[in-house]
Each structure stands twice: as C-alpha cells, then as structure tokens.
Design a protein that fits this description.
disordered C terminus, single chain, 3 domains, alpha+beta, about 50% helix, three-stranded antiparallel beta sheet, hpI Integrase, Chain A, Double Stranded RNA Binding Domain
C-alpha cells in the first residue's frame, strides 16, 4: 500500500523483500517505488502509467546512512517530480529522456568540434610569419640573383631599421601590418635627412610583400612559414623622394690633389687609399665590383683584371675584363705585401672584401682632413661614384670615342652584340685597351706627369 516513506522504513527493507511505494501528490502524477533486490541499498524508481501500462524509470540508489553513498529522500522526491512533469508534458518519459541525452550528446560533440577548431585556428595564427620573417624570406629569395652587396644591404635594413629600430612592428604578424606601421618605420629615416634611404627601405618592404603575396605557395621556396597575406600595406604609401641626377665631376685640380694626397691621409688606411686610386687608374670602374674581386682575378701575364658585372634588374652576370696600365699594376704591386697572403685584393680584415660603404666614408674622411682644401678653399663633397663620372668625362675631353669608353666602363651592351660579349669576354679587349691608353694619356696630363705610363696597357 502507498504511504509516506521515511529513512527508518528504507533501512528496514529486507533483501528481496516487498517493495515500498510513495504516491506523488496529484491524481495520475505517478509514484516512487523503492526496491531492494539484494544486499545493496534500496533503489528508487519513478513509476507512471501510459496507455494502460506501468513503466519504471530508475532515479538512483538510496542513501541509508550518514556516510553512505546515494540520494537522500528529498533528492529522490525532487527528481521524481521532474520526471512526473516530463510524463505529464510528453507522455513517454524514457523516449523523452533518450531524446534529451541524444541532444546533449550532439551539443557536447559540437562543443568539442568548436574547441578543436579554435585550437586549430590558434595554431595556424601562431604559425603565421612575422614581418621580420617575411623580409628574411625575401632576402633568401634574392641570394644568387643579385650582388652580394645588395644582399648585405637588405640584411642591414632587416637588422637596423626593423629589428633594432622597430622591434614591435618587426615581430607583428606580416598580415596584420598596416600602412601606419610602415610609416612608423620610414618616418625616423626621413626625419634624419636620409630621404633617399627612406625611399629605398620603402621599396624593399614593398618588394618583400609582393614576394609574399605571389610566392608563398611556390614549390621552390625553402621556408615553410605561412603569411596568408591579403594586401600590400606599403602600396598605400606614396613614393616621396624624387631622385635627382648626379652631376658632380671633379676638376682637374681636385683630381690631381686627391690622387697626390689620399695615400698621405692618416684617416684613410693604405689599402683603402690605393683602392680609390686603382678605381681612377682603371678608367672609373664601379668600386663595388673592383673591391670584391680575389687575387685570382688578376692575370699578371695578360695584364688584365676580371670583374663580374651584375648591374641592373635581373642581375645578369657577365665577365668584364679590364686591361691594366702600368699605373694600375704598380698599385697592385704596392698592395700585394699588405693583402697578398689573403684571398681578396682589397681587404682590411683578411677574411672578406672591404665593405661597400667604406669607400664613401674614406672620401668623407679625406674631405674632412687637412687635405680637403685647395688654396684654403674647401673642396665640395663628392663620392666614389663621382670618380667614375670624372673619368668618363676626362676620356670624352681628350678624344676617346664614346663607344670604346663605354666598353671600358662596362656600360650595358644589348642585343646580338651584348650576347656575343657575354659569351666571349676577350672580344672587346683590343678596343678597351685603346680606350685605356687614351685615358692614361689624359690622366698623366691632368696629374702633370710626362706621358710615360701608357706603355703596354
């Protein structure tokens, strides 16, 4: 019979004994059935009727002692009421509970998938390359296609202008960098008066982003960093600096004074001084090409020096042979005791060629020295590039044909002629020798020497 069950009655239930029943308030709301099938504590069930049949839904084991496990009577009654409401609203309690469990399982699965997706996206984001890594990837892509001096300059920009001057921007994900961040990098360079350098750094950053946009999925790319770039933030910054054509040419008096005093300048080392004179003596060769050549490029028997000309976009490398005058050979003989035991002709460390920026510093040091004046007047600034221009105009003034002077200075050859020249570097040696002889005659006159150095060129 149905009655109110208490803890004492539950404790008094015998194994395999008759079950106890407690009806829930309200007609047709069902009842709580207590059964003890064995030695274990009694179990509670919710009993309800549907379509003339009785159904049991287990609530749980009963707690019969202070330290025992299971549900207390109040907890059992609360759960029974919840199930009674389900029976009243949905009829089939078991089916509804099964539906709820399936729904909960689906929600758990969806939650696990969402969490896994979050972890995946976080991992992808963590793997995204930074601006510094993008720039370094770009540098690696240029190795072997541009001059080593250009690679060294890119590495300097990465180290100095990005990692040291702007570490916060350098460490940002490359795809998160915006035009304002690029401006943050360029503005200090511009403000210190280096407008040309600011424009160069802008061009380098622009090229790095273009590389990242097009080459990320290239099979030949060695880096496995992902950047997922969608735009080039540098493209939105205008090119501010307007380059002006350089026209500085040394006067005959300036050239003579420079030649006679550069080796006497305490601020300029003996190797550097002779490098600057050698550039003049060879008709104004590009100083960066001359400075990186090893001793093996000098052929003392043929009196030639081999340069590798990779100037211009695309970096097409070609051999440029220079016929050497007696003046140029004397300079090599002077520097040989200083660097002859090393790989490179023009080195101060013995391990690598003179840095590409060093000649410009040396010229500035000479200008700042006591030799930087003629008759008390300061000589206007010039650079090693201006020595090349000075030599070109000297040849023109003394009647050396433009075509052969261009050959001597390795101005670009195109078309069939250029192809023949690249395949046979010695083809133009006779014409270059003719230009060198004319230049040596002109240089001797400017230096106030008797024309005796032309000899065999």
């Amino acid at each position: 019979m149905a009655s109110v069950i208490n803890d004492q009655k539950l404790k008094g239930m015998q194994p395999e004994g008759a079950p106890l029943t407690e009806s829930l308030p309200g007609r047709g709301m069902g009842a709580i059935l207590f059964k003890r099938p064995g030695e274990a504590p009694p179990s509670a069930y919710f009993r309800y009727r549907r379509d003339g049949k009785s159904y049991l839904v287990k609530i749980g084991s009963c707690k019969t002692g202070a330290r025992g496990a299971g549900l207390t009577l109040p907890q059992i009654r609360e759960r029974a009421w919840e199930l009674a409401k389900v029976a009243y609203e949905h009829g089939d309690v078991k089916a509804h509970l099964a539906f709820l469990e399936k729904q909960a399982e689906a929600e758990r699965h969806a939650s696990e998938l969402a969490l896994a997706e979050q972890v995946r996206l976080r991992a992808i984001e963590a793997a995204r390359g930074s601006l510094a890594e993008l720039f370094n990837d770009y540098i690696d892509s240029r190795r072997g296609t541009v001059r080593e001096s250009q690679v060294a300059e890119l590495e300097r920009v990465l180290r100095v202008e990005l990692e040291e001057a702007n570490p916060d921007v350098a460490e940002m994900k490359a795809r998160d960098v915006r035009p304002g961040h690029i401006r943050q990098i360029l503005l200090p360079i511009w403000d210190r008066g280096s407008k040309g350098m600011a424009d160069k750094v802008r061009a380098y950053l622009h090229a790095a982003y273009q590389y990242g946009l097009t080459a990320e999925h290239s099979l030949s790319r060695t880096s496995r960093k992902s950047f997922a770039l969608e735009l080039n933030p540098v493209a939105l910054l205008p090119k501010e600096h307007k380059a002006t054509a350089q026209t500085r040419v040394l006067t005959d008096a300036e050239l003579k004074h420079f030649w006679q005093t550069i080796t006497q300048t305490d601020e300029v080392g003996p190797v550097m001084a002779r490098l600057l004179k050698f550039v003049i003596a060879t008709g104004g060769q590009r100083i960066d090409q001359v400075s990186r050549e090893p001793w093996t490029s000098y052929d003392s028997e043929k009196r030639t020096l081999r340069l590798i000309d990779a100037k211009g976009r695309g970096g097409v490398r070609r051999v440029h042979l220079i016929p050497l005058s007696s003046r140029a050979i004397e300079l090599l003989e002077e520097v040989e005791p200083l660097t002859g035991r090393h790989e490179f002709i023009w080195t101060t460390t013995g391990k690598k060629p003179i840095a590409t920026t060093s000649p410009s510093h040396a010229v500035r040091d000479w200008l700042d020295s006591k030799h930087g004046k003629i008759d008390g007047e300061q000589i206007p600034p010039f650079t090693p590039r201006d020595l090349r221009r000075t030599c070109a105009q000297l040849m023109q003034r003394y009647g050396v044909e433009n075509q052969v002077s261009d050959l001597l200075q390795s101005h670009g050859q195109t078309g069939v002629v250029g192809q023949h020249y690249r395949n046979n570097p010695e083809a133009y040696l006779p014409e270059k020798t003719k230009a060198m002889m004319g230049f040596e005659t002109a240089l001797s006159k400017v230096l106030g020497e008797a024309v005796e150095k032309t000899g065999k060129s």
